[in-house]
Amino acid sequence: MLQELLFSLPQVLIDGLALGAIYAVVALGYTMVYGILQLINFAHGEIFMTGAFIGTGFFIMLMGMSWTTAIPQLLLFIIVIVITASFTGLIGVGMERVAYRPLRSAPRLIPLITAIGISFILQDVIRFIAELATGRYILTGPSLFSNQITINFSSISSWFNNASFKTSFLIVLITAILLMVALDYFVNRTKWGTAIRAVSLDRETASLMSINVNKVISTTFFVGSALGGATGVLFAMQYGTIDPYIGFILGLKAFIAAVLGGIGNIRGAMLGGVILGLMEMFAAANLSILTGGIFGAEYKDVFAFAILIIVLIFRPEGLLGKPTAEKV
Amino acid sequence: MKEKLTSFLQNKWSQVILFTLFVVITSLSLYLSQKSVVAFLLLLASLLVLYYMKLKNLTKWIVSAGILFILLPMASSGGPAFQSYMEVATMVGIYVAMALGLNIVVGLAGLLDLGFVAFFAVGAYSYAIFATPQASNFMPFGQYPLGGESFWIFLIIGGICAAIAGVLIGIPVLRVKGDYLAIVTLGFGEIIRIVFNNLDRPINFTNGAMGISSVTPPSIFGFNLVFPHHFYFVTLLILAFTIFAVLRFEHSKLGRSWKAVRENEIAAQAMGIPLVKTKLLAFALGATFSGMMGVVFAAKQAFIDPTSFTLLESFTILVMVVLGGMGSVPGVILGAALVTILNLQVLTELTNWVNQLNLSGMITIPDALSPAKMQKLLFGLLLVIFALYRPIGLIPAKNKKFDESKLKSSNSLSIDRENSVAIDKDNV
Predict the structure, then answer these.
(1) Which of A5, A251, B46, B335 is deepest in the core (most CB within 10 A)?
(2) Among candidates B183, B377, B391 on the partner chain, residue whose Cβ is nearest the Cβ of A121
(3) Helices B57-66 and B37-52: crossing angle, nearest 10°?
(4) In Å, how far are A37, A38, A42, B105 from A112, measured between CA atoms?
């Protein structure tokens, strides 16, 4: 059994890293909003989905023009990702303005309900647009960076199988790391980042220190949603096919990653995302081997939820979070 | 003039006369016209009018029971659309009961449960497995499928199974609060669906994604219930029981502790309310009604598969509760009826109409915008608009009013004694 596990390990690691990087960046959006508003932004998964659609739309549009063939693909990719990120960032700001800001003093159940509503609206609006534009709502993007690369793990030791991946894997990984490093710098080293941290610590005191709280919250939504949208582009590039319903489950899993790392903690979200991606791929590949065929790969979502429940019961503050006591 | 009109409308007897006229006209038009959805809906709406009339509660209950049990089936039996009306009415009943169950959890106890359809699934599968040869795959004894008489026992068994599922889900979940609870219950809802979807190996419990077909129809005294109008009466009976039970619960000690927990957990605990027990009971009781209706659903459809129990269903029930008014029984009934009719009648009728317009070439509306596909958008808009502008819902929840002087007179003895003690103290 161990032999079988080791044999597939290199491929599992590569797939898990790609998925984990995506989870990690989406989880950042959840964790930032939670840190500043103590609110689960249910619609964040849909922002991710919207990003995937906007990105794919731009790719298809740009590829259709003749002059774009002269531009290297990498530059094209950077242009698309920047445009998409700014679009989804604006959607995020608008969402906060319409659905969350009027409810800031309402009971906590109410903003959660508007968040569900917003995510339904986004799903259907995107579906309408996609269906009106192309006739069907499942889109397949142009294949970019699709050269296969194989790494000979078997030459290291006969225990391992060879692993192969597309070039897009490297792009996903590098972009995700760049985004995370940039965010970490933004939050920890810049003036705006300091303001965000101050507001998340204590909103009232921060506003006394002449911080414009509404502006800071809008910025947080912009940054989180821009990251989500950019990840959507990465997802569409890595996996090819997208539909309007990918955001919900992926958003949930990213949320699980955020909880796993400690919600409100930015580095925790990154760690949680990578761990969750690796574990999920491991489960998908090996669950049926480990349980003697009783549970197959279709239980991988159950596995992710089981992680969430276990974390919430035994370590609700997450891997890197600090426990907080409830004040009366 | 306006004052006269209002005073006329406020008068009890004028209300009764107008109401009777309304009911007679709508039921006659429903009976005489072949297929009139509007008359059917108006007849149902008469119940809402009845709710706002100045009558005694008992009279209202008797009249509404009369309309639902006798008048509605009689009036709609005229045309060929009888069974489809009864089908819609049955679905309304099923969803109303489920929404009332969720109302206990969300509205009264304040625990946001986004996986509520899981309990419905548990109830449905508990009957479907034993009323088909499916059960012989794993049961060492007994003859399967069970006969149609077992349906009545399974109403209780399905409820109990769902309640057990509710407690099992509740135990780990209740350690987490607020928003986390929503996510975890949502996860559980998905888990149960995935499990039912894959439980065809190693032992075939649920027949996986293929679903369970040809469920034995329920029977009573050797009479098989197969048509929608049979199930209409079954649903109505269970619904009556559900409404009665929910109203009793709401005004019981348990109901008051749910509300206390909803308003402030810590304060409630300090007043001596056992938190875990109260919350678990909310989960279990809410699940029970849903499980019972699951049994009815399985028997009515005669076929179930995991696609009937998706997340969208859970959210639909949540929309019903939010729309009607969280914690308000009449509100939730109204919300559930509105959403179900919107789903089953209005959207399909609109789609047919749009298709006809397309065919006749009046206007062309692309297929992507057909009303049947707008369900999610409508739900989303409803949720956002109601949460922003009317979080209390269509018919807001009211706390029971107690007459102060009455309470005082019934407790006058004890109060007198307290007063005398106080006076004694003053004297000393």
Answers:
(1) B335
(2) B377
(3) 170
(4) 12, 11, 7, 16
Give B-chain residues touching A125 at CB under 8 angstroms. 377
Residues B428 and B205: their CA atoms lie apart, in Å, by 78
In this structure, are residues A93 and A18 in contact, taking their beta carbons and an 8 Å threshold?
no
| Cβ A1 vs Cβ A289: under 8 Å | yes
What does each C-alpha distance from B126 to B33, B189, B217, B230, B296 come to in angstroms?
41, 16, 14, 21, 11
In sequence order, what are the beta bridge partners of B266?
none
Q: Is B135 on the interface with A (CB under 8 A)?
A: no
Cβ atoms of A256 and A305 within 8 Å: the answer is yes
- Tokens of residue A81, six digits: 């990702």
ipTM of the complex: 0.85
Could you tell me the pLDDT band of residue B208, with boundaries at 50, 70 and 90? confident
Helix then strand then coil, in percent of chain A rounded to 5, is: 75, 5, 20
Listed as own residue / partner, the contacts of A191-198 with beta carbons closer than 8 Å and 24 or more positions apart are A192/A216, A192/A219, A195/A219, A196/A32, A196/A36, A196/A220
What is each CA distance from A278 to A12, A148, A239, A282, in whole angstroms?
Answer: 7, 21, 17, 6
Q: Write out the two tokens for B262.
A: 């909803």
Q: Is B201 on the interface with A (CB under 8 A)?
A: yes
Q: Show Cβ contacts of residue B20 under 8 Å, excluding neighbours closer than 6 positions.
A: none
If you count DSSP H runs as helices and E runs as strands, how many of each does chain A have, helices first?
A: 11, 4
In angstroms, rounded to a whole number, what is the distance separating the alpha carbons of residues B29 and B37? Answer: 10
How many angstroms separate the CA atoms of A284 and A297, rounded? 4
Q: State which H helix or E strand residue A47 sits in.
A: helix A44-64
What part of B 41-70 touches A (C-beta under 8 Å)? none
pLDDT digits (tens, 9 = 90+) for A53-97: 999 988 888 887 777 777 788 888 888 999 999 999 999 999 999
**How distant, in Å, are the alpha carbons of A59, A176, A261, B173, B209 from that of A304?**
32, 21, 14, 16, 21
Query: Distance (Å, rounded) from C-alpha A130 to C-alpha B273?
Result: 53
Helix axis angle for A213-239 and A44-64, nearest 10°, is 60
Q: Is B175 on the interface with A (CB under 8 A)?
A: yes
Give DSSP secondary structure letters for A201-260: H-HHHHHHTT--HHHHHHHHHHHHHHHHHHHHHHHHHHH-EE-TTHHHHHHHHHHHHHHH
Q: Which residues of B touch A110 (CB under 8 A)?
A: 387, 391
CB-closest option in A40, A109, A117 to B380: A117
pLDDT per residue as tens digits for the range B72-118: 877 777 777 778 888 888 999 999 999 999 999 988 988 888 889 99
Mutation choice for A interface testing from B105, B114, B191, B198 by most A CBs within 10 A: B191
Contact criterion met (CB < 8 Å) for B381 and A301? no
Beta carbons of A103 and A114 less than 8 angstroms apart: yes
3-state SS, residue A82: helix
